[in-house]
Write a structure and sequence with these properties.
Elements lengths: L14 H22 L5 H28 L5 H24 L6 H35 L9
Helix pairs in contact: 1-2, 1-4, 2-3, 3-4
The structure holds fe (ii) ion (FE2).
Length: 148
């Protein structure tokens, strides 16, 4: 199983968004490494999965805050996608608690597929919209600091 390599096709080009997406990818890569390890320590693997779940649950509201604050037209659909994923990883976590072996390669493949597709099809789409809003906020006519 190949690790996910960060490349420009994942770049939303909003600094804190990209930093957080990199962190999610890093955690999935850590799961891949731990699973591949001959001495796979299931407790550590569960811990990393818990870290991933916690991180995602904390990060999504920050991303959604951008979308609602700037009235991104597809915010509702985007938030639905996040909600579905959180529901899924919460269910996974309960399932792994029954037996850590349930964290199979298929599950990891699902994580890889979800995050790469979500970034490329959903996050990339709000990038330009939010960047324009951020720019206007900073330099637009409504900003008194830039009026002469
Ligand atoms: Fe997203």
């Amino acid at each position: 199983m190949e690790k996910i390599k960060w490349d420009p096709s994942f770049g939303v080009n909003i600094l804190d968004v990209d930093e957080n997406l990199k962190k999610i990818i890093e955690l999935i890569n850590k799961i891949i490494d731990q699973k591949k390890s001959k001495k796979c320590d299931e407790e550590q693997l569960m811990e990393t999965f818990a870290d991933l779940t916690d991180f995602v649950r904390n990060y999504f509201p920050c991303e959604e805050n951008y979308l609602t604050r700037y009235r991104y037209p597809e915010a509702r659909q985007h938030m639905k996608e996040h909600k579905k994923f959180v529901k899924k990883i919460n269910a996974f976590r309960r399932w792994f608690a029954e037996d850590p072996a349930n964290l199979s390669e298929d599950v990891i493949k699902y994580l890889i597929e979800w995050i790469t597709t979500h970034i490329r099809e959903f996050d990339m789409k709000f990038g330009p919209f939010i960047r324009i809003q951020l720019y206007l906020e900073e330099y637009g006519p409504g900003n008194k600091a830039h009026r002469f």
